């Protein structure tokens, strides 16, 4: 069994290297460039309109933004919060630390570039998601990459069977990824954080040797003490993980089994709080180290365009390494191009596809430009890494490096702060991905069978809490990346349609050049009429 597991790991590592390798990143970034060019830099030209049409409306209390009058859909803000619940996760903390230590501070610059381009990929996904969504037998909106692959690509010449196959592939990849990245990986992060907090300063020995007892040859009291401490620590971890798993199952069952409405309501309350909580904590540290901020930005830009060759390498290789890690961690963080968040954006009560696309632009902006940048500046101004190379000074990596950065400024509270942030980020990510998996399952097996998926998903939480699921997480990471392939094929094939829908909206709403145009709400006549008859 061990040989089989090793074989699976070897094969998965090879596939993962391709899925998350340079060719795949070129496809992801290339799609963002394509949509930016075709829409003439829409995310730049209409950034003000984006802000006004999304977050700006929250303060004007306009109908449909904070509350949906349609009991079968969620509000635009709830859709955003649920999408952010899945994207603002441990990747915003651990992923940034990995990008800096592996690609140097310059990787952050390329992470920003990935986000700026990813805004248009995410925008396009959401526009297509709304345009091709349909109501299921419960009256709920169902949309996502599988629908615009089947009904969009499927309408193209010779595309009927191709669209169907790609839609099925995407759904299968999404289900597998939801169990791993959206479940196992997040539960593992939660248990790791809680174990770190619960770890006692001194572990009591579980086996205290009898001073008068004769010890076997080669065995010392020190050996017995260390063995006892190790056994006690193992038992403690097992108990903590078991309790954590039970608590998570109870909490997740209360939310997930309640459907999208309950998931969206929960995320609407948690996500804004956790984002502000993390941002404010980060800003406090950044201001504490304000004199080091210029040096941090200098390291980012210098590292991004470092034409000085590293020892034993070439200048081009140094830049390529920074680009690769920046793009990789950027895409992994905001998920633009994976086609995941479009599933919940499609459940919004919005009428205009472009408006939900604008929320998609804000989603990427909030996740990467704001949250990831906060993490990066905390790490770069705290003195825990070398600003030239990004190497960890203490040797800490991943979550340990982020914890060290916060602890250096906040003391013991820093470790608690990171642990709480990770638990909140991971918990809401589980909620978001449970919905993604549910919609993918629904596409393959029907609406009524989704309860089976939900039970399996919740049951997987306990397995993740008490077992070593590293291989399963690695496998799902590969499937997470595989989602991008059929999704991006759909976005590229339907890019002309995205441009037409965008122009239609711009001419009617933004510039007012032709207010008499018929709005492009849906690809289906019945849905188009339903939206036209709405009185908002």
Description:
This protein is an all-alpha fold. It has a single domain, classed as Amino acid/polyamine transporter I, CATH 1.20.1740. It has helices at residues 2-19, 22-38, 42-45, 47-53, 55-58, 76-87, 94-103, 106-131, 145-150, 160-198, 221-256, 259-288, 293-304, 315-334, 342-345, 353-381, 398-410, 412-445, 450-466, 470-482, 484-493, 495-510, 525-532, and strands spanning 134-135, 141-142. α2 runs parallel beside α21 (484-493), α6 packs across α18 and α10 runs antiparallel to α18 (412-445). The longest helix is centred in the middle third of the chain and has 39 residues, at 160-198. The chain starts with a helix and ends with a helix.
Taking the sheet with the most strands, its summary is:
2 strands, antiparallel
Radius of gyration: 24 Å
CATH class equals Mainly Alpha
Question: What order do the SSEs take from the amino end to the carboxyl end, as H and E?
Answer: HHHHHHHHEEHHHHHHHHHHHHHHH
Share of β-strand residues? under 5%
- CATH topology title: Amino acid/polyamine transporter I
Tally the structural domains. Answer: 1
Neighbour order of strands in the largest sheet: 1-2
Helix share bin:
over 70%
